[in-house]
Structure formats: C-alpha cells, structure tokens
Design brief:
- This protein is mainly alpha-helical and 101 residues long.
- Helix content is 40%, strand content 8%.
- The protein contains five helices and two strands, in the order ααβαβαα.
- It has helices at residues 2-8, 18-24, 43-51, 71-78, 80-88, and strands at 33-36, 61-64.
- It has a two-stranded parallel ribbon with strand order 1-2.
- Helix 4 (71-78) crosses helix 5.
Length: 101
C-alpha cells in the first residue's frame, strides 16, 4: 500500500532499505529525488535505483551522503580514480554527471 501511495503522489517520501531491495527487488515508480544515506554495499543497487527514477523527472536529483569511512563502498560506485578526488577534496558538495543529457 505504501508503494501505491508513493507512486500516486499521495505520499512524498518512501523509505527503502538496502535489505528490502536485496530480497524483493520491487519496481518503485514515481521517484523524482533519491537520497542514499551511505553508498550502497552492492554497487549495482546504485544504478538499479537510479534507473527506477521517473523519465519525466528531468530535474531529478540523486544525493549520496558519505564520509572517509565509506571509501571502499564509494570506490565500487565511482571508481578508484574518482574516489580519491571525492575523499581528499575540501569541498562539501560534488556533482558527478554520467551518461548522455
């Protein structure tokens, strides 16, 4: 029922755990903004969840919160060269654009 409410817009927030995604792999529709409170343990989850974002959400955003303790999981998502840039930087915010716009 929560997924239905989220997809129809009756609920603005849906909390999805990595554990639920691992075991169920539900197709979530209606995603416009995606927030990871840490880089996912399994890097394929990152692209799977991003690919679930609504195609009409050209202004959709993906935010990943991380610290220097998340180096290994962040490396699996961004690659070894990018992770050094992200971790060593003094900037508080980074933008990574991939694919065709």
């Amino acid at each position: 029922r929560a997924r239905t409410f989220f997809a129809s817009g009756r609920r603005k927030l849906l909390l999805l755990t990595e554990r639920l995604h691992f075991f169920r792999r539900y197709r979530i529709s209606g995603i416009h903004h995606l927030v990871f409170y840490a880089p996912p343990t399994y890097p394929e989850f990152y692209s799977e969840l991003i690919n679930m974002m609504s195609s009409d959400s050209s202004r959709g955003t993906v935010t990943t919160l991380y610290s220097h303790y998340d180096v290994l999981s962040l490396q699996r998502v961004t690659g070894s060269t990018n992770v050094l840039t992200l971790i060593k930087s003094e900037e508080m915010k980074h933008t990574i654009v991939t694919g065709n716009l």
